[in-house]
Design a protein that fits this description.
two-stranded antiparallel sheet, two-stranded antiparallel ribbon, alpha+beta, 16% helix
Length: 144
């Protein structure tokens, strides 16, 4: 008996599967004969499909100096809505569902400048982006 190559087996199995399943293609569920298709209710909210993540809110126009402890896990707020800046308090779940916090664990005790404008290119650390006109001209949310 001759051995088949893996490619030949895939081709053979694919052809057998198509015959077995009735020729392949897309199957659409059908209702009973003569049944009408019921459209979705007119009051249903539209589905928002977006491939661009929401833009974070500018929480502060300067970085936050923070004493970080080695081995401690931190969650840096990436959405800008947290009341515990620069750390996450879970507000993103309602205010910015497409954004989640950046979790990090420092390797040594140190003072770090954590980004407050949320536009840094090296999160969670400040890279000076807050000095740009777009950040400096942004409206800050009122403090509670």
């Amino acid at each position: 008996m001759a051995l088949l190559s893996p490619a030949a087996l895939v081709t053979l199995m694919g052809a057998a599967g198509r015959r077995w399943r009735g020729g392949g293609g897309v199957r659409r569920p059908r209702g009973p004969p003569g049944a009408a298709r019921i459209p979705p209710p007119a009051s249903a909210p539209p589905v928002r499909r977006c491939s661009v993540p929401p833009q974070p809110r500018v929480a502060a126009k300067q970085p936050f100096p923070v004493e970080l402890k080695a081995g401690k896990r931190y969650a840096w707020c990436a959405c800008g809505h947290s009341e515990r800046q620069p750390f996450c308090d879970g507000t993103h779940k309602k205010a910015a569902p497409g954004v989640s916090p950046l979790r990090f664990t420092p390797e040594e005790d140190k003072t770090a400048w954590l980004c407050g404008c949320k536009r840094t290119r090296s999160p969670p650390y400040c890279d000076g982006t807050h000095k740009e006109e777009a950040v400096q001209s942004a409206q800050l949310a009122p403090q509670p």
